[in-house]
C-alpha cells in the first residue's frame, strides 16, 4: 500500500497522544521525521515514538525530500510562516488550530495554497469524529424540528498551571493570540459553523474577571445565523470553585420546535435527544487518538488525488479566526482599566 510520509513540526504535548500516534497507526501514513527546537527533546520524542529522523530546525524538516506532508503543531504565532514555507515547497500542510494568529495571516496561507495548488487543512478534527457527525445527522434529520435557539456553556475554574512562571503559552497573547477562549472556544465556534451554518452577526462582551493573567478569561456572546435562529454562549475560565471542588461545565443545548438536543464539546457526554414523547441517549466513544479520524481522511484524500475534498472546512477555519479576532479586538485595544469591553458586528 502506498503511504504518505509525514513530518511533524513542534512535537510537544498535543502530539503525544492526541495526534502524533495517528501518523504511525494508520495504514496509509508513516511518520518519517519530527522537529522540536530543543534537539534533545526532539531526539527523545523520536526514540519513544519509533521515528527515524529528528531535527531542531523546521526548515530542515520541510526540505527533507522524504517528508511528503507536514503537520504543524507549534503555537499559532508561527503557523503562517511555517505553513507558507511548506506550501511553497509543494508539501501539503495540516496545521493545528486556530489556523493562525490573525485573520490576515489566514488569508495569506489560503492564497499561497491556491497559487501553488498545494492542499491546506486545519485541525478542527471534531468534524471527523463519529460523536459530532451523529449530532449533525440528528439535526439534519429534523430530530428537534426547526432549530430555534442554541445555548453553549464552557465554564471552568482556573488550573494550577495558570499562575506559574513562565505562564503556559496558551495564555501568552504574543504566542497564542489570546487566552483559553482562543484555544478552546475556537473548536466550538468551528462546531457552530459545521452544525448550524454561516454566522451573520454577533454581539460580545469580553473581560478579565480573575485577574490571574492579562489574557481574557471571560467572553459572553450572542450570535445570529443565516438560517435565522440565534445562539448565546459563555466562556469563563476562572470561575470560583464550589464546595465540591473546581467547576467544569461543558454543554451545548439545541432547542427546536419538536424538542432539544444536548451534547458537549470536550467531555463528550452521551448525546441526549429529548422530545415530548421520548428521550434517547447516544453514547459514542472518543477515539483513542482523537485526531486520527481527521488525519486518516486527509491522508487518503491526498493519496487519492482529491486534495481539496473539503473546501468548506478551510473556509470555516478562516472564518473562526476572523470572528475571534473581531470579538477580542476591543479588549486588546481598549483602555487597560476597563472591566470589560463589548463588540458588535453585523452585515
Explain what this protein looks like in three dimensions.
By secondary structure, the protein is of the alpha/beta class. The chain is 34% helix and 25% strand. The strands form two sheets. Strands 14-13-12-11-7-10-9-8-15 form a nine-stranded mixed β-sheet. The chain has a six-stranded parallel β-sheet with strand order 3-2-1-4-5-6, sandwiched between helices. Strand 13 and strand 14 form a beta hairpin. Helix 5 packs parallel to helix 6 (103-116), helix 6 runs antiparallel to helix 11 (311-333) and helix 9 packs across helix 11 (311-333). It is globular and about 60 Å long. Residues 335-340 have low confidence and may be disordered.
In short:
The protein is of the alpha/beta class. The chain is built from 11 helices and 15 strands.
**How would you classify the helix and strand content by structural class?**
alpha/beta
Order of strands in the sheet with most strands:
14-13-12-11-7-10-9-8-15
Helical stretch tally = 11
Average of per-residue pLDDT values: 94
Radius of gyration: 20 Å
How is the main sheet built?
Answer: 9 strands, mixed
Runs in which pLDDT lies below 50 for 5 or more consecutive residues are 335-340
Distance between termini? 49 Å
Strand content: 25-35%
SSE order, as H and E? Answer: EHHEHEHEHEHEHEHHEEEEEEEHHE
Number of strands: 15
Q: Portion of residues in helices? A: 25-40%
User: Globular, elongated, flat, extended or rod-shaped: what is the shape?
Assistant: globular
Amino acid at each position: 500500500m502506498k503511504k504518505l510520509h509525514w513530518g511533524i513540526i513542534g512535537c510537544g504535548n498535543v502530539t503525544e497522544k492526541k495526534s502524533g500516534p495517528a501518523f504511525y497507526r494508520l495504514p496509509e501514513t508513516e511518520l518519517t521525521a519530527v522537529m522540536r527546537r530543543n534537539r534533545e527533546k526532539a531526539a527523545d520524542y523520536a526514540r519513544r515514538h519509533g521515528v527515524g529522523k529528528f531535527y531542531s530546525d523546521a526548515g530542515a524538516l520541510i526540505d527533507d525530500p522524504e517528508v511528503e506532508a507536514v503537520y504543524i503543531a507549534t503555537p499559532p504565532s508561527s503557523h503562517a510562516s511555517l505553513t507558507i514555507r511548506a506550501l511553497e515547497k509543494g508539501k501539503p500542510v495540516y496545521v493545528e488550530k486556530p489556523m493562525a494568529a490573525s485573520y490576515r495571516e489566514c488569508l495569506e496561507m489560503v492564497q499561497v495554497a491556491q497559487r501553488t495548488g498545494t492542499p491546506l487543512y486545519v485541525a478542527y478534527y471534531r468534524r471527523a469524529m463519529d460523536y459530532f457527525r451523529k449530532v449533525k445527522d440528528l439535526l439534519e434529520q429534523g430530530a428537534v424540528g426547526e432549530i430555534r435557539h442554541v445555548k453553549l456553556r464552557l465554564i471552568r475554574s482556573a488550573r494550577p498551571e495558570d499562575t506559574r512562571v513562565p505562564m503556559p503559552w496558551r495564555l501568552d497573547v504574543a504566542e497564542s493570540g489570546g487566552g483559553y477562549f482562543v484555544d478552546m472556544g475556537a473548536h466550538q465556534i468551528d462546531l457552530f459553523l459545521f452544525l448550524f451554518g454561516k454566522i451573520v452577526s454577533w454581539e460580545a462582551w469580553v473581560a478579565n474577571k480573575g485577574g490571574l493573567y492579562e489574557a481574557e478569561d471571560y467572553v459572553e456572546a450572542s450570535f445570529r445565523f443565516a438560517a435565522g435562529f440565534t445562539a448565546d454562549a459563555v466562556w469563563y475560565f476562572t470561575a470560583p470553585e464550589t464546595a465540591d471542588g473546581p467547576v467544569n461545565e461543558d454543554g451545548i443545548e439545541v432547542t427546536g420546535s419538536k424538542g432539544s438536543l444536548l451534547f458537549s464539546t470536550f467531555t463528550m457526554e452521551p448525546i441526549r435527544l429529548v422530545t415530548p414523547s421520548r428521550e434517547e441517549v447516544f453514547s459514542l466513544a472518543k477515539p483513542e487518538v482523537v485526531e486520527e479520524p481527521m488525519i486518516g481522511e486527509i491522508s487518503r484524500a491526498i493519496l487519492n488525488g482529491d486534495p481539496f475534498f473539503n473546501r468548506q472546512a478551510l473556509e470555516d477555519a478562516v472564518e473562526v479566526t476572523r470572528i475571534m479576532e473581531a470579538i477580542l479586538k476591543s479588549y486588546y485595544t481598549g483602555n487597560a482599566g476597563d472591566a470589560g469591553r463589548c463588540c458588535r458586528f453585523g452585515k
